[in-house]
Amino acid sequence: LEETFPMIDRTTQMSVSDLKSHDLTQYDAIISTVELDLEQPYLTVSPLLPEHEIAKTSAFLHQQLPQMAVDHLGLNNPDTSPTVTATIDATKVNRKIDAMRESLQLLDAFEVFHTDLTDWSYDIAQHLYHKKITHDLIAVQQLLKERHDKQSFVLSPFRVAIPHFISAHVEIPYIGVWHLATPYDFDEGLTVDTLFCVFLPEDTHLQPLVSEIYSQLSLALDEHNDALTDAEHIEQWIKQSIITLSQQ
């Protein structure tokens, strides 16, 4: 959690039996690997927090921690010492700079277009191959199928799918919104008319950025089913998410 979401600066682990003896109101959010019998809101995730659960975890954290970003920046703490900034080690600074560079690379790769799908995994892999995002079309197609079979990319109940992964087969970051002229049936009657694709290289620094973008997506879809029709607005999400990441 702390690696994926920089806004989390401390976590406390406890067993289910320990929950009854703790004041859970002192915690900003509760995330569990098992179902719980609690009055407080909580989120259940897999122990290793796989990629497909990052979006819903991010959305949950933003719901639970509306002041999280402000507090993290120290804007509500007048006693924050300016010397803290001076003590940041070179490794952390370099990592942040690398993340900013990669963020701008992702922004440059952003595209919105209209298309049709005949074989969704092949069509995506072929597009990435033609744009030189990958040099291994077959491997990317297979990875798409495997990830979807393990956990559907369809963001039910919305007519949106979010194909995404981190892989050594990805050369440079990619993000794109694909509007389908003809709705496509992914599986079990789950029909989508929009794809929101994100693909990152294996050594990426952008997991927190992508979680922020998917969080914005989830919130936007909750408000408007057609939230992905405005390309300029989507680009603003990405820019704002990059700014948020750079401030953490």
Automatic annotation (TrEMBL):
It holds the Pfam family PTS_EIIA_2. GO terms for molecular function: protein-N(PI)-phosphohistidine-sugar phosphotransferase activity. The keyword Lyase does not apply. Keywords: Transcription, Transcription regulation. GO terms for biological process: phosphoenolpyruvate-dependent sugar phosphotransferase system. The keyword Transcription regulation applies. It comes from the Bacteria. Residues 1-69 form the PTS EIIB type-2 domain. Homodimer or homotrimer. Seems to be a monomer when not phosphorylated. This is PTS lactose transporter subunit IIB. It comes from Staphylococcus pseudintermedius.
